[in-house]
Amino acid sequence: VAVIEIATGDVLSSASSPGFEPNQFVFGISSKNWSALLNDPYRPLSNKTVAGVYPPGSTYKMIVALAALEKGVIDGAESVFCNGRYQLGESYFHCWRRGGHGHLGLREALSQSCDVYFYEIARRVGIDAISDMARRLGVGVRPELPVPAVSEGLAPTKDWKRASYDQSWQVGDTLNAGIGQGYVLASPMQLAVMTARIASGRAVAPRLIRGQGGRPLPDPEAPALEVNATHLRMVREGMWSVMNGARGTARKSRIYADGVEFAGKTGTSQVRRITAAERAAGVFRNEDLPWNRRDHALFVGYAPYDAPRYAVATVVEHGGGGSSTAAPIARDVIMRALWNGEPPLSAYPPGEREAE
C-alpha cells in the first residue's frame, strides 16, 4: 500500500507485507534464518511498495483514456460495442465479462472496466502515445526517493522492444498494453503518483523528507501536467462512477459518510495465459489455482472526490479480484487518513458497521 498527500506529495504510508524481524541482524543472523528469508516465496526482504513491479491491469486504463483523448482519437461521447471479445486477424482478445457490455462510452467503460473498449482505443492511439502519457503520469519513471532499490517500472515503446528483444512491436502488444497487461509494469508507489496527478492535474512527486538541519523544508509547488482539464475531468468522472455508479466495479467499497466521496479504479492482472481450451471448458477460479498462479488484485483511488487530499494504491500479490480484495483495503486505509484515525462507523457499508 502507498498513500500520498496530494497537495505536498508527502508519502504518508509505504507498507509492504510480509515483513521480517530486523533484530535478527543486530548480532549477525544465523544461516538458517537468512536462508529462510531468502527462500520465502512471499519475499519479506523486498520493499514491494517501491521495488515490486506488477502488470497494473485495469488501473492503467486512465492512462490509455487520457492518451486517446489528448490525441483526439476519441471524444468521450463515442460508444464502442463490446460483445465479449475483440478480433485481431485470426486471434481473439477477450473481455473479462464473457457476454460483453454492449454499447459503452468512456465513463461507462471505466466504471465497468470494459476490456474491449480499451482494446479499441489503444489500437487507435498506438503504444508510443500511451507510454508517453504513462511517463507523464509517473509510470515508467523512477520516483526520486531516498531509499534503495526503487524500481523504474516499464512503459514500453516500439524502440524498447526492438532494443530489448530484436523484435518488431505488434498490434497485439498494443492491445495487451491497453488493459495494463503484456510488457507494462508499475510499482504501487508509481500507481499512487499516477492517481495523485490525475486527481490534481499537477505533476505531484512523492516526498519522504520534510525537514533538514532541524528546519522544515518548504512545501513544493508541483507544476501543471499540461493535460487538457476537460479530459482530466472526464477520466475523474469515470473513476467516480467506479465507486458510486450503479454498475461500478468497486461500488461495494464506496465511502458512505455524507460529503466524502471516493473515486478509484479496480484492476486484476493475470500472471498466466488462459488457453482457448480452458475458456471453452470454463476458466479456473483463482481459489482453485496454486497461489503463485492466481491473479494480482489492484486498486487505485483518491478522496475526497470534489477536493482531493489523498491518493492510495494497493496491490495484493496473487490476491484475485481487485474489486473484492484490493478495493476494501484501500477504502479502509484512505478513511484512516481522512479522519486521522478511526473513522466513524457511518462511513462503512451497512453490513460492516457492527463493531468487533
What does this structure look like?
The protein is of the alpha+beta class and 356 residues long. Helix content is 34%, strand content 13%. It has twelve helices and eleven strands. It has helices at 31-39, 48-51, 61-71, 106-112, 115-125, 127-136, 158-165, 171-178, 188-200, 229-244, 276-281, 322-339; strands spanning 2-5, 11-14, 80-82, 85-88, 91-94, 102-104, 211-212, 215-216, 263-269, 296-303, 310-316. It has a five-stranded antiparallel beta sheet with strand order 2-1-11-10-9, sandwiched between helices. A two-stranded antiparallel ribbon has the order 3-6. A hairpin with a 5-residue loop joins strand 1 and strand 2. Helix 3 (61-71) packs across helix 5 (115-125). The radius of gyration is 20 Å and the shape is globular. It starts with a strand and ends in a 17-residue tail after the last helix. The mean pLDDT is 94.
